[in-house]
Design brief:
Rossmann fold; Isoleucyl-tRNA Synthetase, Domain 1; elongated; binds 5'-O-[(L-methionyl)-sulphamoyl]adenosine
Length: about 500
């Protein structure tokens, strides 16, 4: 994260298409945002975190027809699945926006008029290769092996349509990227965007007449507004547009849009150009992550290689699913999702390293020390040990603020391994006749466990709350109640069904 001009932070997921059921890719983007939001809340920021569904467009209209439903019935149903997923993965969002809501339709129509009043919209005719799966037009020279550069099948389409004068923004965008070097993260994506913009921006078709499931163009209702223009505006609708017209509430200029790598162009080129045209300041940053790969291919419904986040959460709990996706993916790059690696990471850290350490220390205090340790002042090796834990955790937070989420967890894991080494070397269970020493070691360990638990709590909030409920450190004496195992070991020889449709 770059420097803050206030302590507000506005975090968004892309709004998800409702033509398909939610899968691990969707769950991932939301989990990353949720963890980033929880972490920053814990660190004192005033955070607003929003998500939602993208419900218009030809693709949705067609999926509804195919399933024998009206678009509204169809979108109500699938949008609900995305809401349910939020509960399943334990996301703590502040709002959920649907593009079919009145507040959004009003916002998009207002935004359109602003673009029009500023002279950036004109009527023309469009012909081009249309990729229905990705709702985007391409030119001849952009096709790869007869398909769109996004991999979708294309058809030639011709229609009267309104255009946005994107070409007028080429230099302004390049100047903006130059002045705001953090605007697009990571650098690899920034470089791609810059070379795309440098290669020349053509005006963008922003209305359609070939279907009707969309927001009508104000004043020309034969046209519906291009679904990407409609969808991008969600980010300001949900932040109070058009009432909050200038978006100068402190959240917007600290807005971070988390997106998958395939939609960076829409967020880092079209969206800033629309905002510039409408006279609205730009968000702080576009942060892009890679794809989850299953058997070497992008996981998606259309490819039929989908693992089901609901099944993972049901079998192993949302905390461990959240931990796995954050730990396994090198943020920004692609990652391979597999059950064996899930089990391996779960067992080695959550069950054995962290979980087992909490269990053995707290149950020792509960069983052998009447569930009590006295608070004592610490120095020497005890204080050094806790300082080491603090250092790892602080390094972890710094990495998380730079979106190095897997490395943040590596630091928390390092802290747990330092704590395990400490307790192994101090051997409290072997101390028979030095109550003061025993108390000091256990008190130090309880302090370490609390620190590590807080550090991982944005990722594993349920386990963290449970663990902290076993410890009452409010008085002179720390009281420990009977602990329960946080993460039961998974038997890797068992068969688990984690695939969805
Ligand atoms: N509706 C648009 C976004 C509009 S935002 C103004 C859209 N929706 S989507 O449902 O297709 O995808 C939303 C997010 O899910 C993207 O961030 C995308 O990268 C992510 N994922 C979808 N499949 C994915 C993987 N296999 N792996 C990781 N994330 C991917 O695009």
């Amino acid at each position: 994260m770059t420097t803050q001009s206030n302590n507000k932070l506005y975090i968004t997921t892309p709004i998800y298409y409702v033509n398909a059921k939610p899968h691990i890719g969707h769950a991932y983007t939301t989990i990353v945002c949720d963890i980033y939001a929880r972490l920053n809340k814990m660190l004192g920021y005033d955070v607003k975190f929003v998500t939602g569904t993208d419900e218009h467009g030809k693709k949705v209209e067609q999926s509804a027809v195919n399933s024998g439903k009206t678009p509204q019935e169809f979108t109500d149903e699938i949008s609900q699945l995305f809401r349910d997923l939020l509960v399943t993965i334990n996301a703590n969002n502040d709002d959920f926006i649907r593009t079919t809501e009145e507040r959004h339709k009003k916002s998009v129509a207002f935004f359109w008029r602003k673009l029009q009043e500023a002279g950036y919209i004109y009527l023309g005719e469009y012909s081009g290769w249309y990729d229905m799966r990705n709702e985007a037009y391409f030119n001849d020279d952009e096709l790869i092996d007869g398909k769109s550069p996004l991999g979708g099948e294309v058809t030639m389409m011709r229609e009267p349509c309104y255009f946005f004068k994107l070409s007028a923004f080429q230099d302004k965008l390049l100047a903006y990227y130059e002045e705001h070097r953090d605007f697009i993260y990571p650098d690899s994506r920034r470089n791609e965007v810059i070379s795309f913009v440098k290669s020349g921006l053509k005006d963008l078709a922003i209305s359609r007449t070939t279907f009707s499931w969309g927001i009508p163009v104000p004043g020309d209702e034969k046209h519906v507004i291009y679904v990407w223009l409609d969808a991008l505006v969600n980010y300001i609708t949900v932040n109070g547009y058009p009432d909050n017209q200038q978006q100068n509430d402190g959240y917007w200029n600290n807005a971070i849009h988390f997106v998958g790598k395939e939609i960076v162009r829409f967020h880092a080129v079209y969206w800033p150009a629309f905002l510039m045209a409408a006279g609205i300041p730009l968000p702080k940053q576009i942060v892009s992550h890679g794809w989850w790969i299953s058997n070497g291919e992008k996981m998606s419904k259309s490819l039929g290689n989908v693992q089901d986040p609901n099944k993972y959460c049901k079998l192993f709990g949302s905390d461990s699913f959240r931990y796995y996706v954050l730990r396994e993916m090198s943020f920004g790059e692609d990652g391979n999702f597999s059950l064996p690696s899930f089990i391996n990471r779960y067992n080695s850290f959550l069950a054995n390293s962290y979980g087992n350490m909490c269990q053995r220390v707290l149950s020792f205090i509960y069983n052998k020390c009447d569930g009590q340790v006295k608070k004592v002042s610490l120095d020497g090796e005890y204080q050094d040990f806790l300082n080491n834990i603090d250092k790892e955790i602080q390094d972890g937070y710094d990495l998380a603020q730079k979106y190095q989420f897997n490395r943040y967890l590596e630091k928390v894991e390092k802290a747990a391994s330092i704590a395990n080494q400490f307790v192994d070397s101090q051997k409290p269970w072997a101390i028979k006749d030095d109550a003061e020493l025993l108390n000091k070691i256990l008190y130090t360990m309880v302090a370490a466990i609390i620190k590590i638990t807080k550090a991982i709590s944005p990722v594993t909030p349920i386990a963290a709350e449970k663990l902290l409920s076993f410890i009452d450190a409010s008085g002179d004496v720390v009281k420990v109640s009977q602990p329960e195992v946080l993460f039961n070991k998974i038997d890797e020889t068992q068969d688990f069904d984690v695939y969805g449709d």
